[in-house]
User: What shape does this take?
Amino acid sequence: MTKVERQTFWATTIAEFKASGQSVLAWCADKNVKPHQLWYWLRKEKPASSENTLSWLPLNLSDAGLQSSLIVRVGRVAVEVRQGFDPKLLLDVVKTLISND
Assistant: This one.
């Protein structure tokens, strides 16, 4: 049996098992299949199942809720700088922090 034939066989077998509603042991006993073989193919199928697929969720961001800022650390002090800051004031603050360090 080729690889493709084996995969096709087990895909059909797994579909039959799932449609049966039986436990692995009961279904395998009825079909003369070794349970460890079925478990093996069920595990191989799992990554392709819909349970593990990636799905994206929509995310709506509005500019009103976003504020860009910058954190400037000088020694143990942190200064948060937001849009529209006064560059001269920031320079004075940093100079003061450096001179007091």
Summary: The first helix runs from residue 3 to 20. The two ends are 78 Å apart (CA to CA). The chain has a mean pLDDT of 81. Strands lie at 69-74, 77-82.
